[in-house]
Amino acid sequence: MKPKIRIDRWIILVLMGLSIALFLVYSQYHSWNDSSVHVMQGRERLAMDWQEFHRLQVLAQKGEEMEAQLSQMKSMLPLEPQEDILVLNLRKEADRNGVKLIDIAFSSRQPKDEYVEIPFSMVVEGRYFNSVQFIRCLETHSRTIRIDQFNIAKGRADLPALRTEIRASAFHRAGEIRGSGRK
């Protein structure tokens, strides 16, 4: 009877050892599984952080470009309205582009935070290509000009020219306007 008890004890010990080993393997597997989930989440967070970092780098670069553009645009804004110089320059550009400046009229100035907007309308006559070239020239003018609207229609019956009506705005820096006493 003693050998059977020893065998039973060995069986019990082996079963307990196997149970402990299985428990350890099971708990290690779940720990490994949990840590792999944390690693994957960490990688996803790292990828999102990297994308955010890249986005911020792009914004910083765009910010520098925008600062340069702002500086350039401010340099294109004269300190005073200089409407007479603007008219002279527009006449020169019209002549250079083969169109005739028929009329130009300024509306009342509209003060903004750092600049004053000077709306104006003008009428030019010329061939289609020349009229389009003149409009393109306004977009790249040395003074900041915003074209709000333009209409191209048939000109006078005796000429093959087209009539182009342009509504635009020029700008100057806000501040004291000499001689007028207003800001």
Brief rundown of the structure:
With 183 residues, the chain is α+β, with helices and mostly antiparallel strands.
Write the layout of secondary structure elements.
Blueprint: H1 2-75, H2 83-96, E1 100-106, E2 110-111, E3 115-126, H3 128-139, E4 145-154, E5 162-173
Antiparallel strand pairs: 1-3, 2-3, 3-5, 4-5
Descriptive tags:
single chain; 183 residues; alpha+beta; Alpha-Beta Plaits; 2 domains; five-stranded antiparallel β-sheet; rod-shaped
Verbal overview:
With 183 residues, the chain is α+β, with helices and mostly antiparallel strands. The protein has 2 domains: 1-75; 83-173, 2-Layer Sandwich (Alpha-Beta Plaits), CATH 3.30.70.60. Helices cover 55% and strands 23% of the residues. It contains 3 helices and 5 strands. Strands 1, 2, 3, 4 and 5 form a 5-stranded antiparallel beta sheet that branches. Strand 2 (110-111) and strand 3 (115-126) form a beta hairpin. The longest helix is centred in the N-terminal third of the chain and has 74 residues, at 2-75. The model is unreliable at 177-183 (pLDDT under 50).
